[in-house]
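Worked example

This section walks through a single chain of length 106. The input is the sequence exactly as stored; nothing has been trimmed or padded.
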Amino acid sequence: MTTATIDAEHDGGHVVLTVSGEIDLANADLVQEQVFSAIGNDASHVSIDLTDVTYLDSSGLRVLFTLAGRLKVLQMGLDLIVAPASPVRRVLMMSGFEPLATVRER
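Given that input, the structure is written out below as tokens.
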């Protein structure tokens, strides 16, 4: 089974989620559940560090698009931290995700 690890840090209204491993059809629902549960109602901004994600398929993209939509409704900011020239960055750029969140390096 595919695995992903999610660590959450809270700094006032800023939530930083560090994700590592792979996100695909086998674990996307669990990843989404863990991400959503880590973000409290008092958050104003969410950063997701995807630097250590080695694989992201369309199911993983769905998790990110769903999260971006939810945070927009709640008026929370979102940025994704990805390694330059990584496969994850290429997938995000090709998907048209950038208008929904800031995509930046560490």
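What to look for: The two ends are 29 Å apart (CA to CA).
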